[in-house]
Write a structure and sequence with these properties.
The protein has 16 helices and four strands. It has a four-stranded mixed beta sheet with strand order 3-2-1-4, sandwiched between helices.
Length: 399
């Protein structure tokens, strides 16, 4: 059952899968939406520019039917006049043509966006397979397209019938109107009727556009195995990444251990924690943590410090505070300056005594640190707060 679930396409397409599909020219498209926008732009253009267009064409028609004797017997002059009339017609239709062209170019932005790819021009002989063609004829997508065609036929036909019935009287009245007024009125009737009929397609578009987006997303769904494989290809194998992180930790540990011999002092717990500090007067603003560790790492730090004759000082509260709040390679917290200064003073005096200068310093004891920096005090206080005795009436002074 688990293997069957891994083979089912239940996972949404990943960004990489969507990008690959887009590169192949596979984006959601609604032909009905594009057709509707172009038709609405055409009808709206005729409705807005119709009067001027009719007057312009009427003037050109009247002018074209008038010619003198020279034009009648000179073919070159007649051809030049025809060419001029053709240019004038093109100029007359230019606003309408430009508007429709701009809408046609911008309509893909509504769904899918602009896409320029040569993948669609590459030959695909699989599309020539008769078996695939038969499968496409009886597929779910083909049934949806058939439903859309029937819906368009019924809607457009119904709206067209209602428009014809409504405009019947206006069309019959055109016969008694003057030519100029009737022509403008005819254009207005045609534009209004055209927009009304085309608007019937809006119902189909409101259904088709969401369906095309859903169909595209459903078609690109992935199986769980494909998601896992893509994750491995894009992000790397998890086992390899874990191995890399392990190697990085080992390298960081070796660099840390290599810095222990350069430390001035190692503060210990004495067994659980060890923190190596270094301070160069005039070069550092404050002492730095060059190495720190717990348990086995702490034992290794103490071993290297002993081999390299680095001073080891037992100060449990300070060691715990430095381990918890000190970052490797950074300066110690400002709240620990006083405690660490006491430790470094002892180390530098001891170093001078070993060189034959001064007296042997006294080993510092009870080095004070702020209580809130000691993890031991914080844990003890939390345990007292969470204990049942702390919540009992006697613990609060009640008898």
């Amino acid at each position: 059952m688990a293997e069957d679930s891994d083979l089912e396409r239940t996972e949404p397409a990943s960004p990489r899968r969507l990008e690959q599909a887009r590169e192949e020219g596979d984006v959601p498209r609604s032909r009905e939406l594009s057709t509707l926008t172009v038709l609405l732009a055409s009808g709206g253009g005729v409705w807005m520019f119709g009067d001027g267009l009719v007057r312009h064409l009427n003037e050109m028609l009247v002018s074209g039917l008038r010619f003198d004797r020279i034009q009648a017997f000179d073919a070159d002059v007649l051809l030049r006049r025809i060419a001029v009339d053709m240019v004038n017609v093109m100029w007359a239709f230019l606003p309408l043509g430009v508007g429709v062209m701009l809408v046609a170019i911008a309509s893909p932005l509504l769904i899918g966006g602009w896409l320029f790819t040569l993948q669609g021009l590459q030959p695909n002989f699989g599309r020539m397979s008769p078996f695939q063609g038969l499968g496409n004829m009886f597929s779910k997508h083909a049934l949806v397209e058939l439903g859309k065609a029937l819906a368009k036929t019924i809607l457009v036909g119904s709206v067209a019938w209602m428009v014809v019935v409504q405009q019947k009287e206006a069309v019959l009245a055109l016969s008694v109107e003057p030519l100029g007024v009737g022509s403008a009125h005819l254009v207005s009737i045609l534009a209004t009727s055209f927009l009304s009929i085309v608007s019937g397609l809006a119902v189909v578009v409101f259904i088709d556009a969401p369906y095309q987006m859903w169909h595209h997303a459903d078609k690109l769904k992935m199986t769980r195995q494909e998601v896992i494989q893509e994750s491995k290809e894009s992000d790397g194998n998890p086992q390899i990444k874990a191995k890399i992180r392990q190697l990085q930790r080992e390298m960081a540990k070796r660099r840390m251990m290599a810095a222990v011999p350069t430390a001035d002092v190692v503060v210990t717990n004495p067994t659980h924690y060890a923190v190596a500090l270094k301070y160069a007067d005039g070069k550092m603003r404050a002492p730095q943590v060059v190495a720190k560790g717990a348990d086995e790492v702490a034992a290794k730090i103490r071993e290297i410090a002993t081999e390299n004759k680095v001073t080891i000082l037992e100060a449990p509260p300070l060691a715990r505070a430095l381990y918890r709040h000190g970052e490797l390679g950074d300066e110690i917290p400002e709240a620990l300056y006083t405690a660490v200064a006491e430790v470094l003073a002892y180390v530098f005096q001891l170093r001078a005594f070993k060189k034959g200068s001064g007296v042997r310093p006294k080993l510092p004891s009870d080095i004070a640190i702020p209580p809130q920096l000691d993890p031991f005090n914080i844990a003890a206080q939390k345990n007292r707060t969470d204990s049942p005795d702390h919540l009992s009436p006697s613990a609060n002074g009640a008898s």
